[in-house]
Amino acid sequence: MIHVGLSEIKCAESPETLKTMGLGSCVGVILFSEKERSAGMAHVMLPDSSLARSDHFPPGKFANTAVPEMVRLLTREHGLSPGSLRAKIAGGAEMFKSYRPLPMGSIGKRNVAAVKKQLEIFHIPIVAEETGADYGRTIEFFTETCSLMIRAIYKGERII
Amino acid sequence: MHNLEELLPAHLDLLKEVGNIGAGHAASALSLLLNKRVELKIPTVKILTLAELLNHDTEKHVATSYIQVEGGLSGHFFMMFEVSLADRLIRELVPGASVLDGGIGKSVFSEISNILCGSYLSALSALLEVSLTQSPPICAIDMEGAILGEGLVELSLSDDSVILMDAVLRNQGSNNQLKGEFLFFPAPESMDVILKLIERKSSL
């Protein structure tokens, strides 16, 4: 099992699995090739790097830097063909229910929209997703079966 | 100061003292509220990356109340209890309530956090001679990592590291143990305010 921390991008080949824990408003993005049984996972925290107030950040932090970097890693370094890539995404919740607007709006929703926009740019279809709602998620991707396990405290486990 | 790496050990000691005074007041407030003796573990101050912070106890099931602090200094305040201990806390005031009931229990938890954060901040406000305001608390009950990850999203824009002023409160009774944590994350731009004021005072 390869652990993907906040703002990180990691790649794995069968039979390895990729796991990230405690996604709240963050989005877990998995790009994979079913034929090659290889995948990358990013733990994206924010929608766009234009929001950054500093020049130093890991590419996995923002949707608009994480997706291009992961595509580059998978196609250039792991030799996957760009056309074979598929995506699964999970996360983007709203942990705090509030009548008072939060300073950043619903960051979860913005993250999901930004990830989808990036995937569209790279013509990568989303074959499964579980996003939104108000609970935290831990996810694990199994490269052997290309299935994504999602665990939440009140909802138990399921596979998409 | 916008670069957390410029903070010296002496600065961290000063912050620790500030945290100690704030948490000390919060502990007395909790003690009065529950009519029980409350013990404060010596608070810590750490600079750590968000990834380090969230890698720890990521999936722990906690009840958290989140308050934004603004005014003379800005920051993010969290009161965090494991769910079973949050229920114990609430039941000291409203027997039978639970933080998961979505009603009275959750309100009680929020109100306690409001009072304790208020005491913490009023001590800071008096010490630093700044006026502070606190937002109404909002509650989330879920995985610790998921909650903090969302609460700290604003701080993450300026830096991948945060300053954590951490305090653990517990009561002394052995069979009805209560334990909770206060996490205060001052915004990096507020460091100047804190350090200048303390330095001025200590040079008097």
From TrEMBL, chain A:
The keyword Hydrolase applies. Keywords: Chemotaxis, Hydrolase. It comes from the Bacteria. InterPro entries: CheD-like_sf (IPR038592), Chemorcpt_Glu_NH3ase_CheD (IPR005659), Cytotoxic_necrot_fac-like_cat (IPR011324). Transmembrane segments: none annotated. It catalyses: L-glutaminyl-[protein] + H2O = L-glutamyl-[protein] + NH4(+). The keyword Hydrolase applies. GO terms for molecular function: protein-glutamine glutaminase activity. GO terms for biological process: chemotaxis. It holds the Pfam family CheD. Its EC number is 3.5.1.44. Probably deamidates glutamine residues to glutamate on methyl-accepting chemotaxis receptors (MCPs), playing an important role in chemotaxis. Belongs to the CheD family. This is Probable chemoreceptor glutamine deamidase CheD. It comes from Sporolactobacillus putidus. The lineage of its organism: Bacteria, Bacillati, Bacillota, Bacilli, Bacillales.
From TrEMBL, chain B:
CDD domains: CheC_ClassI. The keyword Hydrolase applies. It comes from the Bacteria. GO terms for molecular function: hydrolase activity. Keywords: Chemotaxis, Hydrolase. The keyword Phosphoprotein does not apply. Pfam families: CheC. One of its GO terms (biological process) is chemotaxis. SUPFAM superfamilies: CheC-like. This is CheY-P phosphatase CheC.
